[in-house]
Amino acid sequence: MVRINFRMDRTNGQASSGARPEGSLTSRDGIMHRSNRIVAGTDTQRISEKLPPYIPRKFKRIHVELTNKCNFSCAFCPDAVMTRERDSMPEELARSALDQIAELELAEKVTFHVMGEPLLHPRLFSILDHARERGLAVGLTTNGALLTPATIAKIAESDLHQIDVSLQSPDARSFAATRGSRIDFLDYQERLLDLLAACAARPSPPILKVRIMTTRFARKVRHKLAIPDFMGSSQELRDTVMDWSERIYRRLGLDEKALDTVRRRVRKVRIHAWNVLEIGPRIFIETYVLTDWGNAFVRDSVIEAHHGHCFGMRDHFAVLCSGDVVLCCVDYDGRTALGNLNQSSLLDILKSPELERIMAGFSKGRLEHPYCKRCLGSSSRIGSWVKPIVSVLALKVLKPLFYRQYRLYE
């Protein structure tokens, strides 16, 4: 970690060191900030020269966790086993993180989610406004239970790039069995549809994505967490996609004749894949398989893996509400923290020797961090060998087979 010394100005309590070099760090409220001059007037080549060679020039997404507090207690989420303190990111820290991401042009988009429900953050909309002012493409992930007409209107006005609705359990039975909430499912469903309708009515609507979980290939996890097999076949999946497509079309006032094409094309969708289904212009239903969050629910000892691959720091990383920068969005407990934005700049954290060591290992298919070894490990000796091999194949060979994108409408 880089040690930074400040001399405090006695007249106003602000950090003072005379003339500051371009991009120097300043301290306000105990939070590290970069001068807005860090990238002003620079070009892409100069920005690239600042970044270490072992990370991508631009990440597909950077997760910023505004809070790890949640209004649900879902059976499939590691919220119950998370040991981090429940907290919300101070607005100044959120603004500083966004400033640094924008100045370094680091991300195709910033998505406000790791753990927790972003709508619980008291300054969410001020932070969204700041992200927009910095020219960042922003994604918001919400379970939707806290939506009100006023909140829906504010979200629709926020000019977001993408909104992900974590529906997960698509009907009343699966909702009651997994989400840990007593709210009425039909009322909940209507709130989600109201949000989609309000955002779709914008002159330039955001990408709208409804996410649904499948359970076919997660028998061990289901049994461990007492989750019913509510999406266990391709036909069930297709029926659910059509049910929600019809609801969305009706609420958004779309031409229901187009549903005939959706109904015909959905027949090729299979449950084994991570499916991204475009059911209308900029409207998606995404289905993915229930996972174990890197052995989060394993009570017995895990046999660590020593080889494997990961998307962490390859297409994304995360900033937790504490300011910790972690390798990936699966690290719900902050075990891979590389540094903290309250003490160091994002650029210095990305240049850290520890990250360089971890990425050098990934480049050779070798796992260096203990959390990565546990994440890709298994409770059986065979599994500890098979799972890493599958991770490499999934990243380099099998992704086109198991990550499928379909356009279901004309």
Report on the structure:
The chain is built from 13 helices and 15 strands. It is α/β, with parallel strands linked by helices. The strands form three sheets. The chain has an eleven-stranded mixed sheet with strand order 14-13-12-5-6-7-8-9-11-10-15. It has a two-stranded antiparallel sheet with strand order 1-2. A two-stranded antiparallel ribbon has the order 3-4. The N terminus is likely disordered.
What can be said about this structure in brief?
The protein is of the alpha/beta class and 410 residues long. It contains 13 helices and 15 strands.
Secondary structure: elements and pairs:
Elements: E1 7-8, E2 15-16, E3 25-28, E4 31-34, H1 44-50, E5 61-64, H2 91-103, E6 110-112, H3 124-133, E7 138-142, H4 149-157, E8 162-168, H5 172-178, H6 185-200, E9 207-214, H7 219-225, H8 234-252, H9 259-265, E10 274-280, E11 283-289, E12 316-319, E13 324-326, E14 339-340, H10 346-350, H11 353-363, H12 370-375, H13 381-402, E15 403-407
Parallel strand pairs: 5-6, 5-12, 6-7, 7-8, 8-9, 9-11, 10-15
Antiparallel strand pairs: 1-2, 3-4, 10-11, 12-13, 13-14
